[in-house]
Amino acid sequence: MRYVLLSVVLTVHSLPPAPSDLGATVIKAAIERAKIDSQHVDEVIMGNVLQAGLGQNPARQALLKSGLAETVCGFTVNKVCGSGLKSVALAAQAIQAVRRRALWRGVWKI
């Protein structure tokens, strides 16, 4: 089976009002660039370097703010600098093991 990375979105380094707002913007842009229906996104996995003060599960906050359905699950990986790579590995495992259609993977390095 072949797996494909459909879209990459980078942001300008800045301090947004809330990382979940920035995450929502990136989720929307990645889905638009990949030209997929947002209904095909099964899960959102986001790595986060510094999570203190961001509230519960920033990835879930971002996916809801992006307009994805409430039925889409999402979780935040907190492994400091390893968060981004770990979120990629977890997304790959989920696609292989669970046969997910599309997963959104991201990382905050704020």
UniProtKB/TrEMBL annotation:
Entry's Gene Ontology BP terms: small molecule metabolic process
Q: Which Pfam families match?
A: Thiolase_N
Q: What is this protein called?
A: Acetyl-CoA acetyltransferase
**Of which family is this protein a member?**
Belongs to the thiolase-like superfamily. Thiolase family.
Q: What is its EC number?
A: 2.3.1.9
Classification via InterPro entries: Thiolase-like, Thiolase_acyl_enz_int_AS, Thiolase_N
Keyword Protein biosynthesis, does the record have it? no
* Domain spans labelled Thiolase N-terminal: 20-97
